[in-house]
Design a protein that fits this description.
Order of helices and strands: HHHHHHHHHHHHHHEEHHHH
Subcellular location: Cell inner membrane; Cell membrane
Strand order of the largest sheet: 1-2
Membrane topology: Multi-pass membrane protein
Distance between the termini: 5 Å
Radius of gyration: 22 Å
Shape: globular
GO cellular component, one term: plasma membrane
Keywords: Cell inner membrane, Cell membrane, Ion transport, Membrane, Metal-binding, Potassium, Potassium transport, Transmembrane, Transmembrane helix, Transport
Helix content: 55-70%
GO molecular function: metal ion binding; potassium:chloride symporter activity
Structural class: mainly alpha
Length: about 475
């Protein structure tokens, strides 16, 4: 491995650590505003982390190397690891004073927009700590969209390139310069956050709750300021507002930008959008009807909670309005399989993602046709585009690695003493960046507070693997990657 490349990675990571230390001043000001003594913790952490980051940046400053796949793979892994470690520092000294494994888990959950938590008693936690959790998730969401739109398509391990989408032909780029596109993305992201906060406020949340939940909703992260999550509010209006914004932020941000800035309705015809909205509706309606028939719940109420909770799972947000595990075994099974699926590429959602299911389905149907007509020529298509062989290979490689990691992780959890439901759902909810599992211990009304350090380290790794699209992490395990 080239020494200058490693130095450049450390330099960029140090700069990001410096930016994140500056962000710590926000919860410090929140605590100061509410008169809570914890503002000193965040202020101290900000100066400590900022000083270390500044020294590291000055020591490694130099001419940056040309961007390459090797630099890209190393950079995304180091950046997310640094974000998680830096974000963990305040958790160890503020509020519940978590140990390092717990703090790392909480921070990793925020920065990967997973939403799992080891903190109980959120209703009595310092406001700065609650703001830090939400802010980590919101900042993580920005990085995740940028990763999915710009970096992963270049590395050929995930994401769908903005200029290769059906909504944006390469001969008619809606934005000639990357800087223009980046500014538009930031404007959309901040704008949606403001609209979400205002909508929550009008629907009945307090100002503080509205801001925190808007950060978490737009990032599809699932961090709440209350142990009961959205069950605390007892408001259908709030549930529908959240359902709308969770679904919206699971769509490709590039297409949202094309629609918002260029007014192109055809951008919304992207196949993955139709598939995602289709399975959200199918899961929600099926479980609502089941809950209405089996449990006698009013149909409108059943639809409200089904759309909210399954939008939350499929967008990989992780909010909950009720303990849907009590609705019946069909709902538990539906929630378990929904945990795998995820949203669209280029969004803040995690999971396997809709576009991969489209490609997998078309590869399988094309293969079956070839069995009938071996000499015929069939192409695998994504909408009007032909999917090249390398993309097909990458999709199958991702899917295989995803299932393998889930199985191996579940086996490790079982070896550590957990039952089948807890083991399998804990690993897949971490790998898909969803949040709650489908067991009593870690379900929609539970959390990960009872987990020991080894389990928390394992699940933190799974969250990182899932967020970085698995392959970009696994490639670092190949000896050939480190050869000069």
């Amino acid at each position: 491995m080239n020494a200058s490349l490693l130095r450049s990675v450390v330099y960029i990571a140090a700069l990001c650590g410096l930016y994140l230390s500056t962000a710590m001043l926000v919860p410090a000001m929140v605590d100061l505003y509410y008169g809570h003594e914890d503002w000193r913790v965040f202020a101290t952490c900000a100066f400590m982390v900022g000083g270390i980051s500044l020294m590291a940046a000055m020591a490694t400053r130099g001419v940056p190397p040309t961007f390459s796949k090797r630099l890209g793979f190393l950079l995304v892994n180091v950046l997310w690891a640094v974000f998680a470690v830096v974000g963990a520092v305040p958790f160890m000294f503020s509020g519940p004073e978590l140990n390092f494994a717990q703090a790392l888990f909480e921070s990793m959950s925020g920065i990967t927009t997973t939403g799992s938590s080891v903190i109980s008693g959120l209703d009595t936690m310092p406001p700065g700590l609650l703001m830090w959790r939400s802010l980590l998730a919101w900042l993580g969401g920005i990085g995740i969209v940028a990763l999915g739109l710009f970096v992963l398509p270049f590395l050929r391990v995930g994401g769908m390139s903005f200029f290769k989408m059906e909504s944006s032909d390469t001969n008619d780029k809606p934005f000639a310069r990357l800087a223009t596109f980046t500014r538009a993305f930031m404007a959309i992201y901040v704008g949606i956050t403001l609209l979400c906060a205002i909508a929550y406020d009008f629907a009945g949340m307090s100002h503080f709750d509205a801001i925190n939940h808007a950060f978490s909703t737009v990032a599809t992260a699932g961090f709440s300021t209350h142990d009961a999550s959205f069950g605390y509010f007892q408001s259908d209006a709030i549930l529908w507002v959240s359902t709308f914004f969770m679904t919206l932020c699971s769509l490709p941000f590039s297409i949202l930008i094309v629609f918002a800035v260029r007014g192109r309705l055809d951008a919304l015809r992207d196949p993955q959008i139709l598939v995602f909205l289709g399975y959200v509706s199918a899961f929600a309606i099926a479980t609502a009807v089941y809950n209405h028939v089996k449990n006698g719940v009013d149909l409108l109420e059943a639809l409200t909670h089904s759309f909210f909770n399954f939008s939350s799972i499929l967008s990989t947000t992780g909010f909950a309005s009720q303990d849907y595990l009590l609705w019946g075994p069909f709902v538990v099974m539906a929630a378990f399989f929904a945990t795998f699926m995820g949203g669209c590429s280029g969004s803040t959602a995690g999971g396997i993602k809709a576009y991969r299911f489209i490609i997998l389905f078309n590869v399988i149907t094309t293969g079956l046709k070839k069995l009938i007509y071996p000499n015929a020529v069939y192409s695998v298509r994504y909408g009007k585009q032909t999917v090249d062989a390398e993309t097909q290979r990458t999709v199958f490689l991702f899917f295989s690695a995803y299932v393998f990691l889930w199985v191996m992780g579940s086996m490790v959890m079982a070896a550590l003493g957990y039952d089948f439901a807890t083991s399998t759902s804990a690993v897949i909810t971490a790998l898909s960046n969803v949040g709650p599992g489908v067991s009593t211990l870690i379900g929609p009304v539970g959390n990960f507070a009872t987990f020991n350090d080894p389990e928390l380290y394992l699940l933190s790794l799974m969250m990182l693997l899932g967020r970085l699209e698995v392959l970009s992490v696994l490639v670092l395990l190949m000896p050939i990657f480190w050869r000069t």
